[in-house]
From TrEMBL:
Keywords: Isomerase, Repeat
Keyword Cell membrane: no
Pfam families from the UniProt entry: SIS
Protein name: Putative phosphosugar isomerase
Residue ranges annotated for the SIS domain, each copy included: 30-169
InterPro entries in the record: GlmS/AgaS_SIS, GlmS/FrlB_SIS, SIS_dom, SIS_dom_sf
CDD domains: SIS_GlmS_GlmD_1, SIS_GlmS_GlmD_2
Organism: Methanobrevibacter arboriphilus JCM 13429 = DSM 1125
Domain of life: Archaea
Length: 335
């Protein structure tokens, strides 16, 4: 069993460490700039969009930062982008994502402060943005994104929380820097359990994914880039509060629903969804942050992504698929 995702999954902790070692002062400088703007746009596609959703929801739970999230072309075509005292952060593993690059160029034309976060130092986005952060992951080959996801998210958290008025910022950033050590233990501890779970559910064809607050971004990644791209399973992400609109009519006995719970205030609704699912015999897979760590629950996606990666890795394997390969991605280009 030789899949590139396997080794890249283990490389996540060091990727964060190396990024902080090389980019910390740079991120602090960018944070200082962002602390003075009136609005911040987060722009990405695919897995990078999921980090934007998570960062926005985390910041808006505890700060007064004014943040909007867009996909690349939705930003590009939006006529109401405010270029006055605004900034935009563009995230892309390759730094060449056509949608996001077009949005970056549009933002430059509008006079926004532009920041690019990418894993490729010679990419167009890094060269064309006014400020940039280069994540230190080494080349990533598995399409669903492991180490580039966690480093992107960690840089967004560090920059945005440093720029915010959150009263526990120092404590949060200290815990953020401890994430690599926690990840190493969780990587070791959660493989076998999720391997067994994946085997049990290998014949399922559709999975729903629910999350609240910052966990919605992770639910989005789980459905869009992990289950659909990595395991080739049908999937749909929802905010937990939307469970009773639509999905509640498809939640039936033996339908698999993955639910993320981190005891956010809004997870009161998540628990109602869990209770309903268990009552009617849904195959409910609940991933609770408190089962893995007791750090600030705003950091939950960094924790819960690890057991989910193992689950998707083995789900793909037991269906004869390479979780890091693609069938169509890369064949369709938007120039």
């Amino acid at each position: 069993m030789k899949y590139k995702m396997y080794s890249e999954l283990f490389e996540q902790p060091d990727s964060i460490r190396k990024t902080f070692e090389t980019e910390l002062k740079n991120m602090e400088k960018i944070a200082n700039k962002l602390s003075k703007v009136d609005r911040i746009y987060l722009v990405g596609c695919g897995s990078s969009l999921s980090t934007a959703y998570t960062a926005k929801d985390a910041l808006e739970m505890v700060t007064n930062l004014n943040i909007d999230v867009f996909t690349g072309y939705e930003f590009y075509y939006n006529k109401k982008i405010d270029g006055e005292n605004s900034a935009a952060i563009f995230t892309s593993q390759s730094g060449e994502t056509a949608d996001t690059l077009a949005a970056l160029r549009r933002a430059n034309e509008l006079g926004l402060h532009t920041i690019a976060i990418s894993n490729e130092k010679d990419s167009s986005m890094i060269k064309e943005a006014k400020y940039s952060v280069v994540t230190q992951c080494g080349r990533e080959e598995a399409i669903l994104g492991t180490k580039t996801y966690v480093t992107q998210l960690s840089t967004l958290y560090y920059i945005l929380f440093s720029a915010s008025d959150y009263e526990k910022t120092d404590e949060l950033l200290k815990e953020l820097k401890s994430i690599p050590d926690l990840m190493e233990k969780i990587i070791e501890d959660t493989e076998e359990e999720n391997k067994k779970l994946a085997y049990k559910l290998k014949d399922e064809e559709i999975f729903y994914a629910l999350g609240s607050g910052p966990n919605f971004g992770l639910a989005y990644k789980l459905a869009m880039t992990m289950l659909m791209e990595g395991a080739l399973k049908h999937s749909c992400p929802l905010y937990s509060s939307e469970f009773r609109h639509g999905l509640i009519e498809r939640a039936e006995k033996d339908v698999p629903i993955i639910i993320l719970d981190s005891q956010y205030p809004s997870d009161e609704i998540t628990q109602k969804a869990i209770d309903f699912c268990e009552k009617i015999g849904v195959k409910t897979l609940v991933y609770r942050m408190q089962d893995y760590s007791n750090i600030n629950n705003l950091l939950s996606p960094f924790i819960l992504v690890i057991p989910l990666e193992w689950f998707v890795f083995y789900l793909a394997h037991y269906n004869g698929e390479d979780p890091g390969s693609t069938r169509h991605i890369g064949k369709v280009r938007y120039e």
